[in-house]
Amino acid sequence: MSSVPSPSSPSAPIAAKGRRRFTVDALFVDGRPRAVGVEDLPEAKTIRLDRIEADPTQPRRSFDPEKLAELVASIRREGVLQPIAVHYDAERDVYVVLHGERRWRASREAGLVTIPALVRDVPEEHRLLQQLMENVVREDLNAIDRATALRTLKAQLGDAPWEAVAEAVGIRRSRLFQLLGTEKLPDSARADIRAGRLSEKQSRALQGLPTPQQEALRSVIVADELGAEEAMRLSRALRETALPEETPFEATVAALTDIRAGSRPPLAAERVPRIEPRPATDDPLGTLLAALSTAAAGGKTAKVALARAADAVGAPPYDPSRLEGDVLALARTLSRTPTADLRPGGAAYPFLAALCGALDDLLRGGS
User: Fold this and answer.
1) Please, what is the angle between helix 143-156 and helix 173-181, to 10°?
2) CA dihedral of 50, 56, 60, 62, whole degrees rounded to 10
């Protein structure tokens, strides 16, 4: 009687070459054509809405009621088309929204019980960074919320330089400072930005102006829905007129109305009080400035008097290059002059005010 060879013996039959071996895991693999190149996500869930809460550190602080209502209507018709992202807080046994708070809010208002979600294990120190990377570049997140989030991120990064914050989020340094500039605007302007009445580009026209002028220009921009370019033009015109900071709101609005109508408010030089120069025996400069103002009227006698005053101080013949150099020299001197000396009562104020008046008369031809 012949013995049956054991499977381990050398004479045991060898499996057919090329025969496929199956494992238990292979029983659970989707082998249909539509599954080729597709992998299931183990973190994909359908979660009850009452088990989810908003993230208190989420950069978004305001939600447009009208846009939220539109999303509610869309979800009622089509459902939630894109899952939100959440992380699980084991200590409190709740899921916290990472991305998609608007969809979560709208789903609750639409009466849904559950929502599709991806559960992600994101370290706390990376959550704000991820939210910023998603939100800072989004057009529907207002500039005020972006600026607040960037400042929070800077603190979370150990008070890192702004350059490092910009690099971490993936925006230009100049863009970062444009966003931060909105934090310096008046409360009314920031409220308009949050509400969508004032865009971040329009708000740039307000930056650098005194607060009363910011309020006036803001009201004109919002009321007349001015574009960013027109807003910047009005801002530049306000700076050129150099209205005093204490100018009332109504007067500033009136000045803006004049600018838009093609006229202009009085320039700063026109508002400087005329200071009569001292007699020639005491001050040759005063005499020369007075002669300049008088000669602007165009009379022959006045022009002769001006020539004599110029001869008295040894004025050289006219030379465009020399004039440019003299103006530059004056500008350099003024840049080093203490502010107190330029104000009424200051050492430089009397002759600078007289020069201002003389130049005004001369450039306007005495009119």
Assistant:
1) 120
2) 80
* Class (C level, CATH) for 44-122: alpha beta
Domain ranges of the chain: 44-122, 123-184, 190-268, 272-363
Parallel, antiparallel or unpaired: strands 114-119 and 94-99: unpaired
53 in catalytic set: no
Decide if pLDDT at 236 tops 60.
yes
Most confident of 128-142, 221-235, 267-281: 221-235
**d(C-alpha 199, C-alpha 190), whole Å:** 10
Q: If you average pLDDT over each of 127-136, 285-294, 312-321, 327-336, which comes out highest?
A: 327-336
* Half-sphere exposure in the Cβ direction for 136 (13 Å, CA): 28
Between residues 117 and 123, which one has the greater pLDDT? 117
Catalytic residue among 39, 78, 101, 324: 101
Rounded Cα gap, residues 313 and 291, in angstroms: 13
CA distance 260 to 336: 36
Our measurement of the distance from residue 238's CA atom to the centroid of its chain's CA atoms, rounded to an integer in Å, reads 20
For residue 125, which amino acid is it? Answer: E
The arithmetic mean of pLDDT across residues 79-101, rounded, is 89
Q: Which residues of 166-177 are buried (b: 16+ CB within 10 A; e: fewer)?
A: bebbebeeeebe
Q: Cα dist. 39→80, 84, 218, 230, 332 in Å?
A: 22, 19, 53, 53, 71
More confident residue, 243 or 236: 236
pLDDT in tens, 119-152: 988 776 676 666 666 655 555 578 888 888 888 8
Please state, rounded to an integer, the average pLDDT across all residues of the chain. 78
Q: How far apart are CA 187 and CA 200, in angstroms?
A: 14
- CB-CB contact of 206 with 189 (8 Å): yes
Handedness of CA 102, 104, 105, 106 (dihedral sign): positive
**Regarding predicted confidence, which is higher, 250 or 52?**
52
Measured distance CA(231)–CA(140) in Å, rounded: 22
